[in-house]
Amino acid sequence: MLKVVRLDERLVHGQIVNNWCSSEGITEIMVVDKNVVRDEIRKTFIEMAVPEGINILFCDVDEAVEIYEEESEYEDLMILFSNPFEILEFLEKGGHFEKVNIGGLPYKDGKRRISTAVYVSESEIEAFKKIAEKNIVLDVRMLPTDKSVNVLTLLQLKEE
């Protein structure tokens, strides 16, 4: 079953394995990131962060769209994206889910803060709006126990 779709530039890290995976009973993590797929060193570091008993897959968007439904039939699946552009591409190519948890997008030049750990650029805001137009809930939470806040609400508050 597809349990969690998360946007977090850090991909797999302590909050993921200690909080999200344990609270949701995750048995497989699918990392969807075209750069990571081609980077053997980064894949090795990510694999080292995943606890025993949880499978890890690395896919580009095309492969993820092709296999995510089958994977979610047999595993309690978490899909991790590092940017909203690949989420949008996933949806435009036929992938489907109802909600994206936004966990961490760090500060970089040209980004503005909308929550404690989420900084967004204008192009990311446009991607979020396009994702939301597909009736996908964009839920900002670091941890599963945090209060859920819709990213569009945060963006609206920051514009006022």
Which outline best applies?
globular
Largest sheet: 7 strands, mixed
Low-confidence stretches: none
Subunit organisation of the chains = single chain
What does this molecule look like?
By secondary structure, this protein is α/β, with parallel strands linked by helices. The protein contains 7 helices and 9 strands; from the N terminus they run βαβααβαβαβββαββα. A 7-stranded mixed β-sheet has the order 3-2-4-1-5-8-9, with helices on both faces. A two-stranded antiparallel ribbon has the order 6-7. β6 and β7 form a beta hairpin. It is globular and about 40 Å long. The N and C termini lie far apart (39 Å). The mean pLDDT is 92.
Spell out the key features of this protein:
160 residues, 7 helices
Topology overview:
Layout: E1 2-8, H1 14-24, E2 28-32, H2 34-37, H3 40-49, E3 55-59, H4 61-74, E4 77-81, H5 84-92, E5 99-104, E6 112-115, E7 118-120, H6 122-132, E8 137-140, E9 149-150, H7 151-159
Parallel strand pairs: 1-4, 1-5, 2-3, 2-4, 5-8
Antiparallel strand pairs: 6-7, 8-9
